[in-house]
Specification:
Shape: globular
Strand order of the largest sheet: 3-2-1-4
Helix content: 40-55%
Number of strands: 4
Structural class: alpha/beta
Radius of gyration: 24 Å
Largest sheet: 4 strands, parallel
Mean pLDDT: 85
Number of helices: 6
Distance between the termini: 87 Å
Strand content: 5-15%
């Protein structure tokens, strides 16, 4: 008994006719155009936020370090899912992290960042302002590992990272400022960090 339909002998796969193949190629080209447009928009978004960061007066060495941070965060995200931010969104978060420090004009002191996560704001501030002593507290191992990797990669000597919960750390010096994006309840943050003041 011979098979009905348009089959290749020996394979059992239905042959694609020319029209079906052309339709697939057209859809593929549309996807490619949309992907190119999205990549272009993401690149423009990144440049927009990078320029905003430069306007904060961040020096070239700090910008180079922030670029390393951004590049490696995207790479680590593919495997470890440290954050949902990508491309221009990362630079927007960098800007948001630096903006208050730019306006507060804090030039030196000890800053503790509770729950630094993928680096916002603590690591970013430490890379941009080397005169600040940044104490980063991050209990999750994969995030701590990323923070330590960036610290080593950039040679940031002003950054210390604690792989612990904030209530379990002790510091040998007084703290000038405590930041946190991870702890949204200010009373809870106040209670967790009362031993640091």
């Amino acid at each position: 008994m011979e098979p009905k339909g348009n089959f290749e002998m020996g394979r059992g796969n239905k042959k694609r006719n020319g029209k079906e193949k052309r339709n697939r190629e057209v859809k593929g080209n549309k996807g490619s155009i949309e992907e190119k447009k999205n990549r272009k928009e993401k690149g423009e978004e990144k440049e927009k936020w990078k320029t905003a960061v430069e306007k904060l007066g961040i020096d070239k060495d700090a910008l180079r370090k922030l670029e390393l941070f951004s590049t490696h965060l995207e790479k680590w995200n593919r495997v470890h899912k440290l954050t949902n931010y990508r491309g221009g969104e990362i630079w927007e978060q960098i800007f948001d992290s630096l903006y208050p420090f730019h306006h507060w004009k804090i030039e030196k002191g000890v800053v503790v960042d509770v729950g630094t996560g993928a680096g916002f704001p603590g690591l970013v501030v430490g890379l941009a302002y080397p005169n600040l002593n940044m104490e980063l507290v991050e209990p999750l191992k994969k995030r701590y590992s990323f923070l330590a990797y960036i610290k080593t990669l950039t040679g940031a000597k002003n950054i210390q990272i604690y792989p612990s919960r904030v209530e379990k750390i002790t510091l040998p010096h007084p703290v000038d400022l405590i930041t946190s994006r991870a702890v949204g309840d200010y009373q809870l943050l106040f209670n967790l960090t009362s031993h640091l003041r």
